[in-house]
Amino acid sequence: MAVLPILTYPNPPLRQKSKRVRNVDGSVQRLIDDMVETMHYVQGVGLAAPQIGVLLRVIVIELPGEETLALVNPQIVKRSGERTVEEGCLCIPGYRGEIKRSVKVTAKGLDRQGREIRIKGEGLLAQALEHEIDHLNGVLYIDYLESMDKLYKVVVETETPEI
Question: Is 86 a residue of the active site?
Answer without folding.
Answer: no
